[in-house]
Amino acid sequence: MLERILKILIIVVDCAGPLLIAVGLFAGILHVTLLDISLLVGMHVITMGGVTVGYHRLLSHKAFKTGVKTRRILAILGAMSGQSDPIRWVDLHRRHHRYEDVEGDVHSPHLSGEDFWGRLKGFWYSHLGWIFDDDWERSDFRYAVDIQNDSVICFVSRYALVWPLLSFVIPAVLGGVLTGTWTGFFSGFFWGGLVRLIFGHHVSACVNSVCHVWGSRPFVTKDYSCNHGLVAILTLGEGWHNNHHAFPCSARQGLTGWQIDPSWWFIQLLEKLGLAWDVRVPSQKEMLRLDRSRLQNT
Ligand SMILES: [Zn+2]
Ligand SMILES: [Zn+2]
User: Fold this and answer.
1) Residue 199 near residue 46 (C-beta atoms within 8 A)
2) Distances, alpha carbon 49 to alpha carbons 5, 34, 119, 196, 290, in Å
3) CA-CA distances (angstroms) from residue 178 to 42, 52, 167?
4) What is the pTM of this model?
5) Which of 172, 219, 264, 272 is 20 to 30 Å from 2 at the Cα level?
6) How many other β-carbons are positioned within 10 Å of the β-carbon of residue 45?
7) Closest ligand to 90 CA?
8) pLDDT, tens digit, 9 for 90 and up, residues 124-160
9) Which of 193, 236, 244 shows the shortest CA–CA distance to 217?
10) List of residues 6+ apart from 107 with CB closer than 8 A
11) Residue 136 C-alpha to ligand 2 middle, in angstroms?
């Protein structure tokens, strides 16, 4: 019951929030300072990095290995994003890869019909609507059995509500301390906590919606996944989604020099520091095998 109430609250905040913020800024009710922007961007990078590097590339796809402490920190940062606990996130994400735009996919935009309304409905479902689908509510987490045996991940999942709360407390305290005012405290809470949460939810949701509808498809895959540069920038590299569906176990998703992938840069840093190892990337031969332009010319 508590989970259902939280979901309704999140949907209301995610849908009404952007509109209210835009109106507030336009009407001059809301004011934003450089510190507010810094807290918003800083908290987004930290929590989104927890999702992309921790939840996604490490836990879901085992694209590299780490020690216990690094795994714990990455999982906590992912949980701070307010995108559910790691076990549920990994279970649903692996289910997405298992079914990839066919019946059984958790959030495909392509299962509601191909006419205008079907596409619109599908887009909404893939973006946020799927969160309310009872089919996923009843999940037995069968796709995440391995991480259910990981005591570090169980610890993070057990305190699932603590981490998102922490992601509000940190920017609020920083805002209060750095300005020495209560206004700074509430402003940090608002921009670094609430606005960052809404922004993070929407850009992550774009990977499921936008990146299965619009963009380039350099690799041949069974699904409709696309590469979308803007989504990639906002999600620290996750928008190279066609690359990802072609090579799901790769720690690197931006596969060419110009494909910006900050999550990959961070994994490389971890590797250099000796905190990550067995880092997986596709070979040139593997990439050529799925290269659409090469296959079309043969
Ligand atoms: Zn996908
Ligand atoms: Zn994935």
Assistant:
1) no
2) 27, 22, 31, 13, 28
3) 15, 29, 17
4) 0.93
5) 172
6) 15
7) 2
8) 999 999 988 877 776 788 899 999 989 999 999 999 8
9) 244
10) 96, 125, 126, 127, 130, 208, 209
11) 17
18-43: buried (b, 16+ CB within 10 Å) or exposed (e) per residue?
eeebeeeeeeeebeeeebbebbbeeb
Do residues 226 and 214 make contact, with C-beta atoms less than 8 angstroms apart? yes
Closest to 239 measured CA to CA, from 206, 197, 266, 200:
206
Residue 51 Cα, ligand 1 centroid: separation in angstroms? Answer: 15
Q: What is the Å distance from ligand 1's center to 123 Cα? A: 13
How far is the centre of ligand 2, averaged over its atoms, from the C-alpha of 237 (Å)?
Answer: 12
User: Rounded distance, CA 107 to CA 60, Å?
Assistant: 16
Cβ burial, residue 4 (10 Å; 0-12/13-18/19+): exposed
Residue 85 backbone dihedrals phi, psi, to 5 degrees: -80, 160
- For 268-285, how does the pLDDT look when each residue is reduced to its tens digit (9 = 90+)? 999 999 999 999 999 999
Q: Rounded to an integer, what distance in angstroms lies between the CA atom of residue 12 and that of residue 145?
A: 32
Evaluate whether 32 touches 25 at the Cβ level (below 8 Å): yes
First to last CA, the chain: 56
Provide the residues around ligand 1 (an ion) whose CB is within 5 A.
225
Among residues 153, 194, 217, 161, the alpha carbon closest in space to that of 44 is found at 194
Tokens of 284: 């040139």
pLDDT tens track for 198-246 = 999 999 999 999 999 999 999 999 999 999 999 999 999 999 999 999 9
